Automatic annotation (TrEMBL), chains A, B:
Lineage: Eukaryota, Fungi, Dikarya, Basidiomycota, Agaricomycotina
GO biological process entries: GMP salvage; hypoxanthine metabolic process; IMP salvage; XMP salvage
Source species, domain of life: Eukaryota
Gene3D superfamilies in UniProt: 3.40.50.2020
GO cellular component: cytoplasm
Name of the protein in its database record: Transferase
Keywords on record: Glycosyltransferase, Transferase
InterPro entries noted in UniProt: PRTase-like, PRTase_dom
UniProt GO MF annotations: hypoxanthine phosphoribosyltransferase activity
Length: 213, 213
């Protein structure tokens, strides 16, 4: 028997993100998004619409940096395999991020990592660890101890996923990392609209047969 | 009077990309996508679904690298201003792209730059020029003249935009760069679904009042 499939329309995703954004803004107040490609690209772009910040009386977009990890590339972005190695194919561009911002670009910021789904948690845990290495490297470069500790205390990492599958995870999110999921689901196949190779209107129509979750 | 607005649903975008993908595959056959963020993130992720390549009997995704340009950041991704300076905030990650691929990662490839709209053409022309600089730098590193010319001849650049606004452009696409647009539109305000901050279902409904274009 095929595993149960949860079909999702683009508007489902848009609305799930719209509903979650106010909580992200009030509890985490991000000022940098890290989109994990390719799955995080669409959620990050939608989330940005609902997370504008006002500076000098102007509404401004929160910048998005993209990172790429081969785990997704090789498997078509649909599922993770526990224990599979994660390899970077693109990382944050510090050459530009660092030149315009103090302290290498990450320190003192509220950095939200965005992906479509938290499945086995492998890529999210990998991304968090790598980000923490980058942050620690930038902290070590601060000579003034007080300033270094002030920056350590004000640099925040968070995660946003559209869907969190309620299942055993291959790794743990550190306690000091904020975690937001728009929807918690059982361990079903999530049929995202952007993966629909056939008729998207039919996909949306069939979605009405979704099991009640 | 407000300028005419063309409302677009997510499915409009999905279908426009699905319709154009076979032409992109047969005429250009891309093996690397460059998504211009944030506008190109959603089109690139959707396009990838329709451009899988088969190697060793397995369907594989074409990798996406993201680039960020401040022109978009500062203006909320909606419109360009002629003459405005473009500044990189993220560029291709050669540290990873280059280590796994011969010749620095770009040579011999068919590289498709993806964005949502070709408005004044400023960012697209900028991106093409910067990519050509990178390609030339990688070509110069090839010592064998025959191999260098073979790689020069087989490296291709292309552009895909969902919408091309039929209006005067601030720059020209070089003749050897392939160009694909899913839809050509008059110079109207394109209301993309991912920019909808209010009710996406209402946005879709009001879309029925779109002027015939």
């Amino acid at each position: 028997m095929a595993p149960p499939m949860l079909r999702l329309s683009y508007n489902d995703i848009h609305n799930a993100i719209a509903r979650t954004a106010p909580r992200i803004m009030s509890e985490f107040s991000p000022d940098l998004f890290i989109a994990i490609g390719g799955g995080g690209f669409i959620p990050a772009r939608i989330l940005r619409t609902f997370c504008k910040v006002t500076t000098d009386g102007k509404k401004r977009n929160i910048p998005i940096q993209a990172v790429g990890l081969t785990l997704y590339e090789s498997l078509g972005g649909i599922e993770e395999v526990v224990g599979q190695e994660v390899v970077r194919v693109q990382w944050i561009d510090f050459s530009t991020l660092g030149s315009k911002l103090k302290h290498g670009g990450l320190l003192g910021r509220h950095i939200l990592i965005v992906d479509e789904v938290d499945d086995t948690r492998t890529t999210l845990v990998y991304t968090i660890k790598e980000m923490q290495k980058d942050i620690n490297k930038q902290l070590e470069a601060i000579e003034d101890v007080d300033e270094r500790e002030r920056l350590r205390a004000t640099t925040k990492l968070g995660i946003f996923v559209v869907h969190n599958k309620l299942k055993p995870k291959a790794g743990e999110i550190p306690a000091d990392v904020a975690y937001f999921s728009a929807v918690d689901t059982p361990d079903v196949w999530l049929a995202y609209p952007w993966e629909c190779e056939t008729d998207i209107e039919e996909h949306d129509m069939l979605r009405k047969d979704n099991p009640t979750l």
